[in-house]
Specification:
The longest helix is centred in the first third of the chain and has 26 residues. α3 packs across α5. The chain has a single domain, classed as Orthogonal Bundle (434 Repressor (Amino-terminal Domain)), CATH 1.10.260. It contains five helices and two strands, in the order αααααββ. The chain is elongated and about 60 Å long. It has 105 residues and is mainly alpha-helical. A two-stranded antiparallel ribbon has the order 1-2. β1 and β2 form a beta hairpin.
C-alpha cells in the first residue's frame, strides 16, 4: 500500500527519526557555504588568491579562508564589505520583513 509523504513525515517526527531543528540548521549552513563558495569563485575569477585579498584588507589569510568556508556570522559587515570591494564589487544589505524588503546599506 502506498503511503503519503505527510504521513511518513508525521511518523518520523513522532518517533524522533526526523528533527526539524537539525534540518533547519543544516539548511542554514548549506546556504552559508554556498554563498561563501560564490565569493571564493569570484576571487578566483578576479585572478587573486587568498593571500592577495588578505593583504589588501590587512587581515590574515586564515581570516579570508574562514570567510570562504561560510564563517560570515562572525564577520563584521566592514570586513565583508572590504572583501567584496577588493574583488571589485559592492555589498548591499537588505532587511526582510515578511514580503517587505528594505535596502539599508
Amino acid at each position: 500500500m502506498a503511503r503519503f509523504w505527510k504521513d511518513v513525515r508525521a511518523e518520523a517526527l513522532a518517533t524522533g527519526r526526523l528533527d526539524e531543528g537539525r534540518i533547519a540548521e543544516h539548511s542554514r549552513q548549506l546556504r552559508a557555504e554556498l554563498r561563501a563558495q560564490r565569493l571564493a569563485d569570484m576571487r578566483e575569477i578576479s585572478g587573486l588568491n587568498q593571500t592577495d585579498v588578505a593583504n589588501r584588507l590587512g587581515v590574515s589569510q586564515s581570516r579570508i579562508s574562514r570567510i570562504e568556508r561560510g564563517d560570515m556570522d562572525h564577520s563584521e559587515i566592514a570586513t565583508i564589505r572590504a572583501y567584496v570591494g577588493a574583488l571589485g564589487g559592492e555589498v548591499e544589505i537588505v532587511a526582510k520583513f515578511g514580503d517587505e524588503r528594505i535596502t539599508i546599506g
